[in-house]
Amino acid sequence: MFKNLLAIENFDVYFVIGIIIFFSLLETVSGFLKNSNRKKDDWIQEILSFVILGNLIKPLIVFFVFSLGNIFLPEYRFVLTDLSFTGVLLGYLLVDDLLQYWYHRTAHENPFLWKLHRPHHQAEEMGYLISYRNAFIYYFLMPNIWWVALILFLGGAKPVALGLILKQLVIIGSHSRIKWDKPFYKNTLLLPIIKILERIIVTPTFHHSHHGTSKLEASSDPNGNFGNMFSIWDQLFGTATFHSTYPSAYGLQEKTTDSWKASYFYPLVKSKDKKSELSAGFKKHNTSTLSSITVPLTKGENYLWCACGKSKTQPFCDGSHHGTKFKPQKFTVKRTGDIKLCNCKKSKRTPFCDDTHLNLLN
Ligand code: FES
Questions:
Q1: What is d(CA 307, CA 125) in angstroms, rounded to the nearest whole number?
Q2: Closest CA to 200 of 242, 165, 158
Q3: Whole-angstrom Cα distance, residue 220 to residue 327?
Q4: pLDDT of 325-349, one tens digit each?
Q5: Ligand 1 mean position to 131 CA, how many Å?
Q6: Is 354 in the pocket of ligand 1 (CB under 6 A)?
Q7: Of 28 and 355, which is predicted with more confidence?
């Protein structure tokens, strides 16, 4: 039966569309659509992005790789067909996901890539279509799409087709509002299963945390959990955090009103919202100073100290660190009162001031 399935032409396309229809029906039946705050621009961008990715960007990349391959590597055209199906499937998936992990992580740390990925994090509620919400150039630069094209050229079409189905099942499932892993955390018998599973694949809890608005909330880690299909890369490279609850707020700290055209076609189209990173001439300014800032703090409360030096609400984080390698530092204080926090960003005991700025004044 499995062989018959693989023999169907484009069976991966049917399955991926089936997965999307499945999650869309589940979200609709569960009443999410009725209670949704999504705007027309959200729908346009996400549907357009999904359609163009499958019908234009991927075929173009495949065409390009095949053309180059036929010129420079014709003798390798079907080199994978004699290898084991499972071996090619695993090799394809692991390399694909490792490439995507680093691309995704870089998109959070590089200013230009961040602007292409930013629309993905602008969404203030989760949903199956969020999976495809990025600027179109983001997909052209995505290394794992080029990797897929290469494996196809080498003759790995069937393992790739099955791999794509498995991957989309995990990715769409982890973006959906259907939190399929929730019951596992509530049931002591099921808990060990999810504890093992979340160490291997990306679950809704793991990925929703990445979409959470602020690290102030215990279940949110917008600067971590970059994995797409497997959570192993985050564990290997020190960016994993595991939770058993979901964020109460999704999206970016600073709210802007960008049209779908600006979000999808940036940098060809710029946002009219001057506060937006996607607007023409937008710049993040250095707001660190050679001084400390004294602020009233309360014992037991959580705060986020700005480490990047670009926040407009110093010494606290306002989300301006996106597109840099910096992350805010979460902290609490032992006493209520006025506390001197570092604003030169060079203190050796951040977030507190240790007078390092006095040395920098000379
Ligand atoms: S604004 Fe978040 S670390 Fe600076």
A1: 27
A2: 242
A3: 13
A4: 999 999 999 999 999 999 999 999 9
A5: 26
A6: no
A7: 355
